[in-house]
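Hi there,

I know you've been waiting on this one. I reran it after we fixed the sequence typo, so this is the corrected version. Both the input and the resulting structure follow.
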Amino acid sequence: MRRKRITFLLSSVLVMFFILTGRLMQIQLFQTESFSSHNINLIENSVEQRTQQLVIDEGRGAIVDRNGEELTHYTKNVLILFPFLKNFKWDIEKVADIIGVPTYTLKSALENAKKPFVFGEKDPVELTEDQMKRINALKIQGVFALSRKYSLKEKLAEQFIGLIGENEKTFEKRYPDKVKGTKQKIGITGIQRTFDEWLIAEQPSKLIYHVDAIGGPLFGVDVKYLAPANPFYPLNVKTTIDGKIQRKMEEVLEEREVKKGGALLLDIESGEIVASVSKPDVNLRNPFSDNGSTNYMFTELIPGSVFKTVITAAAIEKEFVDEERIFQCDKDIYGNLSDRPLGNINIKDSFAASCNRTFADLAKEMVEKDKDIIEQYAAKLGLTGDLSWSGDLFHYSDFKQFHADTGRIFKNEEEKKDPNYVSQTAIGQREVRVTPLAVANMIATIARGGEKLSVKAVDSVEYANGTEMFSFKKQKLEGEKISPYTAMKLQQYLHEVVHGEVGTAKALQAAALQVAGKTGTAETGKYKDENKKKQLLNKWFAGYFPFDNPKYALVVVNMDVLEYEGGVYPMFLDIVNAIASLEE
């Protein structure tokens, strides 16, 4: 019995020994970089425990505007000090003299320091290139003058550029071969997400100092600077955004107190997004707690009368109408007396004055002949479908620069059979949903004579030294298009909206550049009061300028406002004038 007990005890000890040995092997040999279900990098954690570090640059690639200016970060020349300096004699007077501060100021900053820090902390003292050279020439261990990367407090085009964050599981899923650095930031939305594979950090740049368990120097006062060895990385994404115009547009929307909505500017010749503003702003502390992270410029919205452009294009091209035909614009789309009687007018004046009856009648006639005609012409104008630049890129067979809603006209085939549904669809109500991006693209298509282009958000991806890795060329949008004649007639009609006798946007005649475009007021079905008497509206204006030599297509939308609130003409006017001023 005693022998059995001893044998059992020894066996148990051996089992425990093998279990512990296996566990140690797992920790030290097999799963050093992805331990447990949480994928903990034990090597990184070990290094963190025995070092003091100060990150100079997290290593993620930069997102820049079309002129190469950074849109998310800026670089500042700063002085970095290590806490062990307070225990050694060093030329503190010389450093203080170079940066122009009293010696006691440097001593005070070091007094309570427990880790490396930037002198000035939240408001770093900025050094000149000459000051940096003089400080570094002193070769004092623990004193460094370096260029450090900082995140911009006021970011431009936030929703367009997108958000980044830490998510170890997502990181491992996206990049199974990059186990190291699982705390790196990854793209969550916008350009940060679609170009994440090129922006992801290879290795951060940092100053590192080895310490013992109580924070004392482990190998003397030797501070090392670690940085990626490859001079071509990180890669930078060069967008089509113009930083100066973007900033002006954001200022206009702030001054006009736009709470929800935005503005988007397209380059007509290239199909590039020059500026994109979405409101409300992103709440950086909790970005998904409200609508701030939503890019409304890429989101399907109810367009209202802007959609009449599609009906007009189809009616002209299919010869359902000419300018001799008269419409009863004293009546609404159901044949009742209109709240806004306009008399008997032709198609040209109907478009300028935005007569609902005209387009309801035309839509019903056309759908009766061809049930798909409205959807066909929405596509021909570049108003629906996937508008993003797309193509083969490395291991992607159909890479898209961005993801935006594709829009819809009818919810189902049955709606096309109901004349009332067709009438409501004709004036941009019922189930019609399009993005501001698509509306701007439609206007650009008309302005360039009917040619359809894919929309570009990114011009190229560049190496760290500025040389080009690859670029995105102008790309035609597939599918049928409107004829040059139809485009010419639409240009005339868009001009009449602003400059005609019955035009609804005469306020824009005051613009520094001649504007053509279309108004839109959409009923949202949402109300401000319980009695449903104060309906909230989406107010639009979409146009292009200068009229004689089209360069930009601009759409502005103010969402969920009351009838006499949030006019879009002042917003549009301010943006046009700001652009004219910048380009003088």
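Quick highlight: The chain is about 30% helix and 20% strand.

Best,
R. S.
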